[in-house]
């Protein structure tokens, strides 16, 4: 990644050769388009028109389609941005930590309006959806590097560094400190992973042996849908095909979630071994890590891990010197779109297109990346799979509940003394979790992000498990001083911002709900608006094409059902 | 193989979607983005049906032998009504001032599901018109993002004149030409894409009101083909 | 029926076409006046709204006076009916919503073709234009909607008879029209 001062100011002469070299390194493959756009964006702070036209010519893609892709992803721009691009994370947790005031302070100090480059081209200050730093909020990215625990003092220092054009790599190192914040260890985090142990077991027991272990472990996909991992891998293996792919979904966009960031940083080997294991079991030769661009700062670290594993014969051709055990992994970057966490949208994005979910069936496991059978699993799923292959299914099944076997990593943030990563066995009550993380005066908890469940203080004995409250990982705590309707509004705005826009109910419905909730929040709504929200919610739930639209009305609907008094107090009569 | 659609037995063959089978059996399921000539799209969601109690889009859902499908019921139509209302509120659809009125599928489906008016707040998007082409005009605010022109131009005309840009409520139809104008593109009035638009977004120039309002396709026959529309005496208007 | 129902009608940002259509019920208006008494209406030239059972409004809300009249109707009418395309979704006047209001005024009164004595009218007697022309339901609660430009005499008559007879209002498929 380029620091501010060695980012060349955009000059026309440089563009064409630069684009040509990128196209060449991508073997002129049109499906690499998104990666090329990310490179160009990084180089120039935007994608210049000349680059678009050159790409269109070289890759035989209409320029309008290339612009269409740029306009789809939040981190790609058609107009030049500042030398310093500051992206403030705009999750509800960042807002609770005072991010709005800090954004204003920085803008005032720099004399710049949010979203617009300063006249001299020095800096752009804007907001993006949650960047996965909720345990150290408020946070932001400067030219892709995360800045954590921001406060007024730091904002003042940042403004000075920007005014003096100090390159980002010369900024104080503690600005960029990303803490791991491991707060509780259980089965998975108790001891370090022995590199290669899962793969050795594979060669000892065979693919059926590992699938059996996975099956015994009851492991379900950690992304949210909760599909049985062993079944998915087996389906992919058993389909007749000449090529297969393993895709690691590292597009952790769920607001308040940061477990994948933690795993990629701290347990990269475990994750990579899990991906490799899946490749060898399914017969895929290629794995792809789809890394969200917000985590780009981890790319180099991951590349180094991959290289080291190739040196140790844990990756590449002839893994552990076994003939035909060929599998390698490539890292591809996202470009800022929550919807790309949906597996078929992710695949579209990997193929270089706008991240629009596909019609299903067919499912990726039969026809996925490039139309080939593909396993798409979350970072945490591969992580657990590597451990289960090593330690066995029964080891994992020693914890948890009947339907929710084993342990799970939680990203805990918000109003508590110790935000961070917690490994808990499934089945724990919310109140137990709140005790462990030092939360008090809790008003509500949002489990599994905006699309998950709102739990009010009268239901804290509910359990985190598939039987009760399915837990994706994000666990956000709100104390009694928080404005619950304001939080609902933040979530509604988030969905309107992140809807892909393909299907009617989600594209229009999320906008309508966002407007109506704003009206409710400001106290200008009548019963008619509340009725309308319910109708729209019903339409979105039943007719949306993918999970985003089908869950986007949950925050407001759950608030209406569980806390009707919030609305009667605000609404006007009549 | 067959399934039951609103009590009627619908035969189908391997690979058929619910929509394919229904169309083959001359049974109407409302739709806007679907056309049997093109790859199913599934964006408008108006073809929503309940298949064994689960809501699916008929145009993308493979038919299942022995399944029960409900389409023309109040439960399903009430959702469709809101979907159509959303499209009306999102764009600018002023029927009395639109040359497509009476042969517009959005309007005809709205009649079919009994929509009196969209009760949502209108989005009021800023006007965007492209009249650069000698034979055709585009009013982007009437576009319902069905991508039929996108598919026709790409799959039949081999031109890729149209595509969709942006995300969420910013998603919009764009033209492939250096200026972004239709007049500078490869588009031709004889293209398949030229007469595929279900609404009044992509309209031919040089003719207007050749068939008077009140005597047009869906004024005479309803979109489901079965129910004849009652010709309405419009004595308030002198021009028809 | 012992007492006649009181009906008020008005045209806001409309063209009176809906009122013309109402008159197109022809001689049946004689039956109607047996059952209703008209309060404020262009037919009676009464300028204020009294307590009414039914208020029928054509046209959308385009200026501050429209809003005032609309709110007066809502305050005084038990049932408020949105009549015709403009009342329902703004109609033709709402085509200006796609443009900036000042640009519209400029085009009409300053720089447009054929303008003499350029200048945007600013007589204090004139109501201010709203930024956007709004359908009635965006301003007040509406009880019934009758689409059409204009709705046919048939639809209006059927609607009124049903309301007067206390029957549920149902506009049949064949009669729903937006143009």
TrEMBL record, chain A:
Keywords: 4Fe-4S, Iron, Iron-sulfur, Metal-binding. The keyword Metal-binding applies. Its cofactor is FMN. Pfam families: 2Fe-2S_thioredx, Complex1_51K, NADH_4Fe-4S. Residues 485-530 form the NADH-ubiquinone oxidoreductase 51kDa subunit iron-sulphur binding domain. Coiled coil: none annotated. InterPro entries: NADH-UbQ_OxRdtase_51kDa_CS, Nuo51_FMN-bd, Nuo51_FMN-bd_sf, NuoE_N, Nuop51_4Fe4S-bd, Nuop51_4Fe4S-bd_sf, Thioredoxin-like_sf. It comes from the Bacteria. One of its GO terms (molecular function) is 4 iron, 4 sulfur cluster binding. Belongs to the complex I 51 kDa subunit family. This is NADH-quinone oxidoreductase subunit F. The lineage of its organism: Bacteria, Pseudomonadati, Pseudomonadota, Gammaproteobacteria, sulfur-oxidizing symbionts.
UniProtKB/TrEMBL annotation, chain C:
It holds the Pfam family Oxidored_q6. Residues 15-162 form the NADH:ubiquinone oxidoreductase-like 20kDa subunit domain. The keyword Oxidoreductase applies. It comes from the Bacteria. Keywords: 3Fe-4S, Iron, Iron-sulfur, Metal-binding, Oxidoreductase. The keyword Metal-binding applies. InterPro entries: Hydrogenase_assoc-protein, NADH_UbQ_OxRdtase-like_20kDa, NiFe_Hase_small_N_sf. PANTHER family: COENZYME F420-REDUCING HYDROGENASE, GAMMA SUBUNIT, HYDROGENASE SMALL SUBUNIT. This is NADP oxidoreductase. It comes from Solemya elarraichensis gill symbiont. The lineage of its organism: Bacteria, Pseudomonadati, Pseudomonadota, Gammaproteobacteria, sulfur-oxidizing symbionts.
């Amino acid at each position: 990644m380029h620091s501010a001062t060695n980012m060349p100011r955009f000059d026309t002469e440089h563009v064409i050769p630069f684009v040509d070299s990128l196209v060449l390194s991508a073997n002129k493959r049109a499906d690499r388009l998104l990666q090329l756009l990310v490179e160009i964006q990084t180089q120039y702070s935007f994608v210049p028109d000349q680059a678009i036209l050159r790409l269109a010519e070289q890759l035989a893609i209409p320029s309008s389609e290339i612009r269409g892709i740029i306009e789809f992803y939040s981190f790609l721009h058609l107009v030049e941005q500042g030398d310093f691009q500051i992206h403030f994370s705009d999750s509800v947790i960042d807002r609770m930590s005072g991010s709005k005031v800090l954004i204003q302070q920085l803008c005032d100090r720099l004399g710049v309006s949010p979203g617009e480059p300063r006249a001299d081209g020095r800096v752009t200050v804007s907001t993006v959806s949650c960047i996965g730093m909720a345990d150290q909020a408020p946070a932001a990215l400067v030219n892709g590097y995360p800045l954590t625990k921001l406060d007024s003092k730091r904002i003042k220092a940042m403004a000075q560094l920007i005014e003096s054009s100090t390159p980002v790599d010369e900024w104080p190192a503690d600005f960029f400190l990303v803490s791991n914040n491991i707060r509780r260890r259980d089965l998975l985090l108790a001891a370090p992973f022995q590199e290669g142990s899962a793969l050795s077991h594979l060669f000892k027991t065979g693919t059926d042996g590992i699938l059996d272990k996975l099956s015994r472990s009851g492991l379900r996909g950690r992304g949210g849908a909760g599909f049985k991992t062993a079944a998915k891998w087996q389906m992919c293996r058993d389909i007749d095909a000449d090529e297969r792919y393993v895709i690691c979904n590292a597009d952790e966009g769920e607001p308040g979630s940061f477990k994948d960031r933690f795993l990629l940083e701290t347990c990269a080997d475990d994750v990579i071994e899990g991906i490799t294991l899946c490749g060898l079991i399914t017969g895929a030769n290629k794995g792809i890590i789809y890394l969200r661009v917000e985590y780009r700062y981890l790319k180099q670290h991951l590349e180094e891990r991959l290289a080291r594993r190739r040196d140790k014969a844990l990756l590449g051709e002839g893994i552990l010197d076994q003939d035909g055990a060929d599998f390698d992994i490539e890292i591809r970057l996202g470009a800022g779109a929550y919807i790309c966490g949906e597996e078929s949208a992710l695949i579209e994005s990997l193929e270089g297109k706008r991240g629009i979910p596909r019609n299903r069936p067919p499912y990726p496991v039969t026809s996925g990346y490039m139309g080939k059978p593909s396993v798409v699993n979350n970072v945490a799923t591969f992580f657990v799979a590597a451990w289960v292959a090593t330690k066995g299914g029964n080891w994992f099944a020693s914890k948890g509940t009947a339907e929710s076997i084993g342990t799970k990593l939680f990203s805990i943030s918000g109003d508590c003394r110790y935000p961070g990563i917690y490994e808990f066995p499934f089945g724990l009550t919310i109140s137990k979790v709140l005790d462990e993380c030092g939360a008090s005066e809790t008003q509500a908890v949002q489990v599994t992000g905006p699309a998950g469940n709102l739990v009010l203080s009268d239901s804290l004995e509910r359990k985190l498990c598939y039987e009760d409250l399915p837990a994706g990982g994000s666990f956000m705590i709100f104390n009694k001083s928080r404005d619950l309707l304001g939080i609902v509004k933040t979530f509604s705005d988030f969905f309107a911002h992140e809807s892909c826009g393909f299907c009617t109910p989600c594209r229009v419905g999320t906008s309508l709900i966002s407007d109506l909730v704003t009206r409710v929040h400001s106290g200008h709504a009548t019963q008619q608006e509340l009725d309308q929200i319910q109708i729209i919610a019903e339409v979105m739930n039943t007719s949306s094409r993918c999970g985003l639209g089908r869950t986007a009305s949950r925050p407001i609907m759950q608030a209406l059902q569980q806390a009707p008094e919030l609305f009667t107090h605000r609404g006007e009569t009549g | 193989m067959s399934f039951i659609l609103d009590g009627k037995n619908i035969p189908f063959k391997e690979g058929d979607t619910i929509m394919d089978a229904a169309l083959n059996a001359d049974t109407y399921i409302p739709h806007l983005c679907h056309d049997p000539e093109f790859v199913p799209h599934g964006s408008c969601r108006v073809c929503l049906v309940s298949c064994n109690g689960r809501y699916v889009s008929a145009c993308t859902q493979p038919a299942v032998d022995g399944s029960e499908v409900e389409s023309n019921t109040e439960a399903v139509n009430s959702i469709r009504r809101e979907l159509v209302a959303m499209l009306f509120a999102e764009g600018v659809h002023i029927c009395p001032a639109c040359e497509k009125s009476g042969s517009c599928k959005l309007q005809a489906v709205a009649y079919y599901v009994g929509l009196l008016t969209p009760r949502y707040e209108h989005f009021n998007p800023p006007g965007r018109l492209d009249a650069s082409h000698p034979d055709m005009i585009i009013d982007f605010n009437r576009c319902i993002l069905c991508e039929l022109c996108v598919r026709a131009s790409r799959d039949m005309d081999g031109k890729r004149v149209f595509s969709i840009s942006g995300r969420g409520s910013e998603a919009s139809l764009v033209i492939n030409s250096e200026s972004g104008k239709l007049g500078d593109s490869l588009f031709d009035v004889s293209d398949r894409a030229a007469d595929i638009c279900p609404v009044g977004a992509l309209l031919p120039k040089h003719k207007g009101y050749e068939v008077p309002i009140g005597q047009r396709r869906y004024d005479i026959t309803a979109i489901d083909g079965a129910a004849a529309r009652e010709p309405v005496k419009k004595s308030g208007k002198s021009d028809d | 029926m012992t007492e006649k129902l009181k009906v008020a009608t008005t045209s806001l940002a409309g063209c009176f076409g809906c009122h013309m259509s109402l008159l197109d019920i022809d001689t049946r208006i004689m039956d109607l006046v047996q059952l209703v008494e008209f309060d404020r209406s262009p037919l009676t030239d009464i300028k204020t709204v009294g307590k009414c059972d039914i208020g029928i409004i054509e046209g959308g809300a385009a200026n501050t006076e429209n809003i005032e009249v609309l709110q007066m109707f809502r305050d005084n009418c038990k049932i408020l009916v949105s009549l015709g395309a403009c009342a329902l979704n703004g109609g033709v006047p709402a085509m200006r919503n796609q443009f900036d209001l000042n640009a519209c005024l400029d085009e009409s009164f300053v720089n447009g073709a054929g303008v003499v004595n350029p200048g945007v009218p600013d007589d204090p007697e004139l109501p201010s234009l709203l930024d956007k022309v709004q359908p009635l339901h965006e301003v007040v609660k509406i009880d019934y909607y009758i689409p059409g430009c204009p709705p046919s005499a048939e639809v209006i008559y059927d609607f009124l008879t049903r309301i007067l007879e206390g029957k549920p209002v149902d506009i049949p498929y064949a009669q729903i029209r937006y143009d």
